Amino acid sequence: MKEYSTYIFDLDGTLLSTLDDLAASTNYALRTFHLPERTIDEVRRFVGNGVRKLMERAVPEGEQHPEFEQILDTFRQHYLVHSLDATCPYEGIVEVLSALRQRGKRVAVVSNKFYAATAELCRHFFGDMVEVAIGEREGIRKKPAPDTVLEALRQLGVGKEGAVYVGDSEVDLETASNCSLPCISVLWGFRDRDFLLAHGATTFISSPAELLDVS
Question: Would you say the C-alpha torsion 153, 122, 201, 136 has a positive or negative sign?
Fold first, then answer.
């Protein structure tokens, strides 16, 4: 594995196992409005483009549903309270982030999860191991646009040289490409190897510790 000086991580499916809590909030919102609930595997396929897109995919008729905005708001309110119920870092993540920081590497998180949840989850699980955490908010385009990654680099005070993007989905691959950054695809997240290969992935890791195996 090549050694980098800056690591930009996706959050859901890369650093944190969040699927159970996302599914619970999705189904709470659907149930509240008497809509059919979704399975874990369905929610797994729906995530990756932010919570609005998640609910567009989960709600029959999507944005055309007459109560869509209320359903989305119900999801948001529930998730802000319950985002820590079952969520936890993947095995080995905390140790790897700590080791990266001890080696003087710069570390940021960029997520399509809404800003408050991104900041709270990073603060709760990783403390100062994650220097910058950026989520979805008004005034900045979300992934796969390059804006949030470029903002993370700006806040870190570094350029693209020596930076790498680490994620688990096709959105992450497209984001890295739009930022002209190399991408490392993880195989413990929401997408499998065949899916990622079909979307252009070239570099894979099967465990977080491989990020420390530098040449």
Answer: negative
